[in-house]
Amino acid sequence: MTLPYADEAHAVVSRLHDDGAVAEVDYGDRITVRVAVPATATTRLRSRVTAAGGTVTTCPDTPAS
């Protein structure tokens, strides 16, 4: 997923660390995060990412939730 470099995005990254298995975070012009989250948290976390101005992309080798 990608997020704008903003305060709300940092809160989302923190939540991803709490609720998922973060594999990688890159702080560039935008914040890019590779993370696996449990199916029970997918909808809630996707909503938080979208509300923060981010986008979510599902990896091809990961089952969609």
Largest sheet: 3 strands, antiparallel
Oligomer: single chain
Total helical elements: 2
Look at the structure and give the mean pLDDT: 88
Helix content: 40-55%
* C-alpha geometry: globular
Give me the side-by-side strand order of the main sheet. Answer: 1-3-2
How much beta, percentage-wise?
25-35%
Our count of domains comes out at 1
* Poorly predicted sequence stretches spanning 5 or more consecutive residues: none
Total strands: the figure is 3
Distance between the termini: 15 Å
Which series of helices and strands comes N to C?
A: EHEEH
Alpha carbon gyration radius:
11 Å
Q: Name the structural class.
A: alpha+beta
How would you describe the overall organization of this protein?
Helix 1 (7-19) packs antiparallel against helix 2 (39-51). This protein has a three-stranded antiparallel sheet, covered by helices on one side. It is globular and about 30 Å long. It starts with a strand and ends in a 14-residue tail after the last helix. It has one domain (2-51). The chain has helices spanning 7-19, 39-51; strands spanning 2-4, 21-27, 30-36. A hairpin with a 2-residue loop joins strand 2 and strand 3 (30-36). With 65 residues, the protein is of the alpha+beta class. Helices cover 40% and strands 26% of the residues.
